[in-house]
Amino acid sequence: MKQGEKKQRTIKTLVGLVIGLGVMLIVQQVIFKPSIDKVMLDVAVQMNESCPMMVDDETRLDNVVAMPGNIFQYNYTLIHIERATVDIDELTSYLQSSITNDIKTNPGLQIYRDNHTTMTYNYRDKNGKSLAVISVAPEDYEE
Predict the structure, then answer these.
(1) Is the domain defined by 36-141 classed in CATH 3.30.300.250?
(2) Measured CA distances, 119 to 17, 33, 137 (Å)
(3) What is the pTM of this model?
(4) Which residues pair with 121 in a beta bridge?
(5) Do residues 68 and 120 touch, judged by C-beta distance below 8 A?
(6) Nearest 5 degrees, angle CA 71-CA 77-CA 80?
(7) Is the dihedral of CA 42, 44, 45, 50 positive or negative?
(8) Which residues pair with 133 in a beta bridge?
(9) Hey, is 33 helix, strand or coil?
(10) What pLDDT score was predicted for residue 35?
(11) pLDDT band at 28, cuts 50/70/90?
(12) In the predicted structure, residue 135 carries a pLDDT above the cut 70
């Protein structure tokens, strides 16, 4: 075998190895990359270790739930509010606007924006009665 043929064969072998390694890395990332549902479940487990926790003087985060279909739910209690004493429509409108803005701008929620996660916020009064459920889908915050 001539020197030029050996050099060409070596180059072809190296190119083949580089392409093979690239394909292997891509396949590994696609096959072994955890699903968004698994990532969200891990986030929920980690967050729930700190729950319940007071968010502010009025709001307690009771827990979070990673739900199938790339839905992440926060469950809150408004500890000084009773359902009978609040205007539910006014509360819901305020929360919808505030939460949507927070999802759009809060750097801590970037992982949800990147993964097009639907965010659900479930609010209960101090007696456990439902006050509002706010759901913000990707099309609501990707405007």
Answers:
(1) yes
(2) 44, 23, 6
(3) 0.74
(4) 74, 134
(5) no
(6) 155
(7) positive
(8) 122
(9) coil
(10) 76
(11) very low
(12) yes
* Dihedral sign of CA atoms 97, 98, 103, 105 in order: positive
Write down the domain spans for the chain: 1-33, 36-141
Residues 6+ apart with CB under 8 A from 142: 113, 116
Nearest one of 135, 60, 129, 130 to 95, comparing CA atoms:
135
pLDDT digit string, tens, across residues 31-53: 555 677 788 888 899 999 999 99
Q: How far is CA 85 from CA 23, 26, 55, 80, 88, in A?
A: 62, 57, 22, 10, 9
The answer to whether 132 touches 95, Cβ cutoff 8 Å, is: yes
Phi, psi of 63 (to 5 degrees): -175, 175
CA atoms within 13 A on the CB side of 17: 6
**Would you state the structure tokens that stand for residue 88, as one six-digit string?**
């539910």
